[in-house]
Design goal:
Elements: H1 17-26, H2 33-36, H3 43-66, H4 69-78, H5 87-91, H6 98-107, H7 110-115, H8 118-125, H9 139-146, H10 159-166, H11 170-190, H12 197-231, E1 235-240, E2 243-248, E3 257-260, E4 269-281, H13 283-286, E5 292-294, E6 300-301, E7 306-318, H14 324-332, H15 341-378, H16 387-407, H17 411-429, E8 432-434, H18 437-442, E9 448-451, E10 463-469, E11 472-475, H19 490-502, E12 507-510, E13 516-519, H20 522-533, H21 538-544, E14 546-551, E15 559-565, E16 571-578, H22 579-584, E17 586-590, E18 596-598, H23 603-616, E19 619-629, E20 643-652, H24 659-668, E21 672-676, H25 681-691, E22 699-702, H26 703-707, H27 711-717, E23 721-725, H28 729-743, E24 747-751, H29 757-762, E25 765-769, H30 775-780, E26 783-785, H31 790-832, H32 839-857, H33 881-909, H34 916-938, H35 955-974, H36 976-979, H37 986-997, H38 999-1007
Parallel strand pairs: 9-21, 9-24, 17-20, 21-23, 22-23, 24-25, 25-26
Antiparallel strand pairs: 1-2, 1-3, 3-7, 4-5, 4-6, 4-7, 8-26, 10-11, 10-20, 12-13, 14-15, 15-16, 16-19, 17-18, 19-20
Helix pairs in contact: 10-12, 11-12, 11-16, 12-17, 12-32, 15-16, 15-17, 15-31, 16-32, 17-31, 17-32, 23-25, 31-32, 31-33, 32-34, 32-35, 33-34, 33-38, 34-35, 34-37
Length: 1032
């Protein structure tokens, strides 16, 4: 089958348009294209959207870089009415209209901005204080006057639209026509009500199929809608009511003062208030890759752009659909999401089976017709035709069409969507937001996870534990309060507090109750908290010194520098960052008197030993340093040499509870864990050992050494790398690329910073951190870990495996039903001239195996046993030999039993009387359905004998089983006229159930037959699967 599915092979991430078009053209025998391709990307719409986006970007480039003439023309064309403000808005104190505000940023006209008094003038016109921000009481008024920060979205599909979709099935439409004709012909010939039973039975069955299908699809759409809302949630920092707080991007209003930092998305159009080294990436809007510097003379910010470097504050001037980003967002939603590899592969399986089924249906109809014509010819009745003959032929045709309904497994590709929707909803409750459907599926095949340390393996709740200062190591006790400063000389303490309070990206903010809290990254906050513990006054320090320039921390430089003007004249630079990098920049040290004195030859070695001793205790180490600069300094960048070392800080960040157990679970599942961190190698090794990642034969390597390796050396060392320290984002990207290309690994990567975006994009599955992650990282990720916890990543892997296994279970179950239903009707038609299963009965079987079967098997939760098996490798066949063994074995049993009943059932069961044929057909139908019920239970585990484990914890499975049996009883006992059945005695009910139940011991025997060859060892030496009793 894998050879036949070669056209249905696509990449899980960023598939080529050629591959997407290839599989679409290969799909044939589709009953309902509208429903089958509902969850598949519309390439035509996507192409049109791409063209529209390129035109928008080109227009923006012209407007942004060729500049203002076009806008002046547009503003003139718009007329004076556009800049007039409503009386209601004027009464509220606003003095500028939404369109006039929007024109400032759109035209980038600095002179026009200056004419209204600059950013302060605009703030006055929109009635806001740049220090206090918007008042919460004014939010609704501002939204009424200036609009909501929301984008136009396609309206949700109603339930009736899903009903309409389900009714587009060609075979159901043909059957409806047949049913109407049957009623039309039957009433005159057989009278009321006998003449309408067959036709009405088919109509009721179709109604039931359509209703159940529509309900299932509608529930899926609601789940996806809920997840889509979560994906679009972006929290931003604003000043409101005089204090800093986080609000949703959708709650942003004109006049809001927004705080921006590296990796943030600019949430709306606005004007720069203040900031340092603010560098904006406008490529998402203009297509230009060159970042733009934003400062007082160039103050305009566009919504949807990204902060590449620096920090700043902006005043929001335009929101929602008045921004260019709003118009672009409307376009971006066109075309839908890429289909997943499993969806495509199962479209291929459905196509192959559909072609076979269509062939069988045509042959069955021809055989029935030929036999009917031969019988008429033998009876010399070939020239006499009546309405009863027409009804007989119509019945044959209905049976043939219904065989197509059963044979074309329309539900196969849609079962993947159902399973993924269920898994994504469950993962959301387990703190993982899946952004791309394929990621949930691919994670089940992951063979390697490259994880960050800080915040993922550790708690990210950091505190300063030790400090080396005045050539002594001091332990920091958080309960000491201000007394902890007594052991540090006053002059040294002054320099230390300056280094902490001036060179920080964090802030001390007050909430509504006046309570102080620290806002910033965990590392920065820990150092700032230590400064406050020493009795320092953050606000007083910041007022006393004037900050001239800031070079923010990033993962490439691994340091942060700031240049300040001293109160008594002169300049001073402060630097803070990775201990060995900052230490290499220092040639002096602060002595016990607070003086800057040259370092001796031994001191760098001694300090390095201190750093290593801190690192061996799993402490994160940072150095603080300063440098006094002459007044005449006029450089573009802050100096990076000649500094005086103030202190070495050791920050404690404990390992998260449960991480070691999660790592052990991954190793048992054949998933290798590699820690990639920017920290000191000794800190990294200590944490890795504590987590169970670094083993005796594992390799810990530093980024610079890894970069210097040749391809041959990389090939030999990469499989053994378990820790990479002092790494750059480029190193992570190189590691991921080599793991995928050299070793065909399926690689999952975690990232939180802007510079992690390339590695996240390159990996098979990119995980961004929900708490510590930047918006740029989240945008490039496939899954967002909302609690930044490594254990959550393992849960995603478990659910990914569950999705894959669940779909395999469903395929095994559905193929068995297909084979038996096709063969029993075909063989019976050829030999007896009639099909034992009628159109209504086959429609009910189709509902059991399609929608209900998917609900039962495709939504089963994962069990821990899933993590005791190896991951599914790249290119492994989906329908395995084990599945074929089960399908063929069960099909042979069912065909044998049902075949015997069909051809000699009356004698064996001693059925006599005028209704003997009807009773036998009902017993065959009943036995067939119960074979599927028990086979559905057998399909709960493809390999293991105990299929009952966890069955009652899956309420959906139990509900489907109970409802199937209950409705089968209703059909047989009460709906005989419509379903061509008669009520059965209790003996025949027991017989039907017994025939179905025998399939369970047969499944046990089948599972003892070995078919798969031994699984080879993982290249890391992991023995993939246990054997013996453990398999049972």
């Amino acid at each position: 089958m894998e050879n036949m599915l070669k056209d249905f092979d696509i990449s899980a991430k960023n598939p080529s348009e050629e591959a997407q078009r290839r599989w679409r053209s290969a799909v044939a025998v589709v009953r309902n294209r509208r429903r089958r391709f509902r969850m598949v990307a519309d390439l035509a719409k996507r192409s049109a959207a791409r063209t529209k986006i390129l035109k928008t970007q080109e227009r923006l480039r012209v407007l942004l870089y060729v500049q203002k003439a076009a806008f002046k023309f547009l503003d003139a064309a718009a007329g004076p009415g556009d800049v007039e403000l409503s009386e209601e808005a004027r009464a509220e104190g606003f003095r500028i209209s939404p369109n006039e505000l929007a024109s400032f940023v759109r035209s980038r006209d600095v002179k026009a901005l200056e004419s209204v008094g600059g950013v302060e003038g605009v703030a006055a016109k929109v009635k806001v204080s740049l220090d206090e921000g918007v008042k919460s009481s004014e939010i609704s008024t501002r939204q009424k006057v200036y609009g909501f920060n929301r984008y136009t979205e396609k309206p949700s599909r109603s339930f009736w639209m899903f009903v309409w979709d389900a009714m587009q099935d060609i075979t159901l439409i043909i059957l409806m026509v047949c049913a109407v004709v049957s009623v039309g012909v039957g009433l005159p010939t057989e009278g009321w009500p006998s003449g309408m039973y067959d036709g009405v039975g088919i109509i009721i069955s179709i109604f039931l199929v359509v209703l159940v299908t529509a309900v299932s699809d509608y529930r899926q759409s609601l789940q996806f809608k809920e997840l889509d809302k979560e994906k679009k949630k972006i929290m931003i920092n604003v000043t409101r009511d005089g204090y800093r707080q986080k609000v949703s991007i959708y709650d942003l209003v004109v006049g809001d003062v927004v705080h921006l930092s590296i990796g943030d998305q600019v949430p709306a159009d606005g004007i720069f208030i203040s900031g340092y080294s603010l560098l904006i990436d406008e490529s998402s809007l203009s297509g230009e890759s060159e970042p733009v510097n934003i400062y007082k003379e160039k103050p305009f910010l566009l919504g949807g752009t990204k902060v590449q470097d620096g920090s700043g504050k902006m005043l929001v001037t335009t929101v929602g659909m008045r921004t260019e980003w709003g118009n672009l967002m409307e376009t971006l939603s066109e075309g839908g999401e890429d289909e997943t590899p499993l969806q495509v592969k199962l479209n291929g399986v459905a196509t192959i089976i559909g072609k076979i089924g269509l062939g069988f249906a045509i042959v069955t109809f021809l055989v029935l017709m030929i036999r009917y014509l031969v019988d008429k010819a033998i009876d010399n009745d070939i020239t006499h035709w009546s309405s009863s003959d027409a009804l007989e032929i119509l019945d044959y045709f209905s049976t043939a069409v219904t065989i197509i309904v059963v044979a074309v497994p329309e539900g196969l590709p849609l079962a993947v969507t159902l399973s993924l929707a269920f898994a994504m909803k469950k993962l959301m409750s387990e703190r993982a937001l899946v952004r791309h459907l394929a990621a949930c599926e691919t994670m089940g095949s992951a063979t390697c996870i490259c994880t960050d340390k800080t915040g993922t393996l550790t708690t990210n709740h950091m505190v300063v534990d030790k400090i080396w200062i005045c050539e002594k190591v001091k332990e920091v006790k958080q309960s000491e309060g201000g007394d902890s400063s007594n052991s540090i000389p006053e002059k040294v303490l002054s320099i230390l507090l300056q280094s902490i309070f001036q060179n920080t990206g964090s802030e001390v903010v007050k909430d509504k109750e006046g309570k102080k809290s620290i806002m910033g990254t965990p590392t920065e906050s820990a150092i700032l908290e230590y400064g406050l513990l020493l009795g320092g006054d953050f606000d007083a320090q910041r007022r006393e010194f004037k900050i001239l320039k800031i070079e923010p921390f990033n993962s490439v430089k691994k340091k942060m520098s700031v240049l300040v003007a001293l109160p008594n004249g002169g300049l001073r630079a402060f630097c803070k960052g990775a201990s060995e990098i900052v230490l290499a920049m220092c040639d002096k040290i602060v002595d016990i008197n607070g003086e800057s004195v040259p370092m001796s030859e031994e001191q760098p070695r001694e300090i390095t030993n201190v750093i290593e001793s801190f690192a061996c205790e799993a402490l994160r180490t940072l150095c603080l340093a300063y440098k006094d600069i002459d007044d005449g300094f006029d450089g573009d960048s802050i100096p990076d040499s000649g500094y005086t070392l103030v202190a070495v800080v050791g920050i404690k960040d404990p390992v998260r509870p449960g991480v070691r157990k999660a790592v052990e679970m991954c190793l048992a599942a054949g998933i290798t864990i590699r820690m990639v961190t920017g920290d000191n190698i000794n800190t990294a090794k200590t944490i890795a050992r504590e987590c169970g990642i670094l083993t005796e034969d594992g390799v810990a390597i530093e980024g610079p050494e890894f970069r210097s390796k040749s391809p041959e050396e990389l090939k030999s060392i990469i499989p053994r790398i378990q820790v990479m320290a002092r790494s750059l984002p480029l190193d992570k990207h190189k590691l991921v690329t080599n793991l995928r290309s050299m070793f065909s690994e399926v690689v999952a990567v975690t990232g939180d910073g802007t510079n992690d975006a390339p590695a996240l994009h390159e990996s098979d599955i990119g995980f961004a951190m929900g708490i510590a992650g930047t918006e740029v990282a989240k945008e490039n990720a496939d899954v967002i870990i909302l609690d930044d916890n490594f254990t959550t990543i393992v849960n995603v892997a478990k659910w990914g495996r569950a999705v894959y296994i669940n779909i395999q279970k469903f395929v095994q179950f559905q193929l068995t039903v297909n084979v038996v239903a096709l063969m029993i009707n075909f063989v019976s038609a050829c030999i007896t001239g009639s099909a034992p299963l009628t159109a209504v009965q086959l429609l009910w079987v189709n509902l059991i195996m399609d929608t209900l079967g998917a609900l039962a098997l495709a939504t089963e939760p994962p069990n821990d046993g899933l993590m005791n098996r190896p991951p599914v490798g790249r290119g492994v066949g989906f329908v395995t030999k084990t599945m074929w063994r089960n399908i063929i074995g069960q099909s042979i049993y069912q065909l044998a039993v049902l075949g015997v009943l069909t051809f000699d059932g009356k004698n064996i069961l001693r059925i006599e009387g005028s209704d003997a044929t009807e009773v036998l057909d009902t017993v065959i139908f009943n036995a067939f359905v119960f074979c599927q019920v028990f086979n559905e239970i057998n399909s709960r585990d493809i390999e293991k004998i105990n299929v009952f484990r966890g069955m009652f914890s899956s309420w959906m499975f139990v509900a489907v089983m109970v409802s199937t049996v209950a409705f089968q009883a209703i059909i047989v006992e009460f709906l005989g006229d419509f379903a061509s059945t008669v009520p059965l005695s209790w003996q025949f009910w027991l017989l039907s159930i017994g025939i179905g139940a025998v399939s369970m011991p047969i499944a046990v025997v089948l599972k003892c037959i070995p078919v798969e060859k031994g699984t080879p060892k993982h290249h890391d030496g992991y023995e993939s699967l246990p054997s013996g009793p453990e398999m049972v």
